[in-house]
Amino acid sequence: MAVVGRIARPHGLRGHVVLDVETDFPEERFRAGAQLFVNRSSRVEPIVLAEVRFQRGRPIARIDGVERREEAEPLSGLELRVPADRLVPLPAGSFYVHDLVGCRVETADGRTVGTVAAVEGASGSNRLVVASGQGEVLIPLASEICTSIDPVSRRIVIEPPEGLLDLNI
Q1: Are residues 81 and 157 in the same domain?
Q2: Which of 38, 119, 124, 135 is least buried, going by the fewest C-beta atoms within 10 A?
């Protein structure tokens, strides 16, 4: 399953929650009637958004069965997920974060840099957080640097500018 958001905190007294968005399609993903999944007590449970409104760009939602703030409070921090087959297809050259995390990163000459642990930043200025043997390496997610991204083979080939890898390690 892919993470599309997170329950940030309760909002108000009637069981509403503020959602942190981790998708480029929030209006489609977070709408009344949408089914999402959470992992609670090591069990995957479906939830349904009963109401959704956007306030300052963030969704505020009420989940079916949650009517009071006290019921919403334990939901804070839960990841909101959807099955991967429900994701919107992306244009060529675009990738979901879950497609990149876990990929092996190596230079064009075959030197292993490490494994993608996370992707940071906003759209257009993303960077790969690569766990290496010497620590964390930050690599801009730019086509000039990341020359080949193959999520199927879990491999990213980079051509880093001189000093980039030394700067980070």
Answers
A1: no
A2: 124
* Residue 26 DSSP symbol: H
* Domain contains 92: no
Are 79 and 126 contained in the same domain? Answer: no
Q: Give the length of the chain.
A: 169
Model confidence pLDDT, tens digit, residues 40-99: 888 999 999 999 999 988 999 999 999 999 999 999 999 999 998 888 888 888 888 888
Q: Which string of b and e fits 54-70 if b means at least 16 CB within 10 Å?
A: eeeebbbbbbeebeeee
User: In this structure, are 76 and 12 located in the same domain?
Assistant: yes
Residue 65: partners with Cβ closer than 8 Å, 6 or more residues away: 71
* Statement to judge: residues 101 and 124 lie in one domain: yes
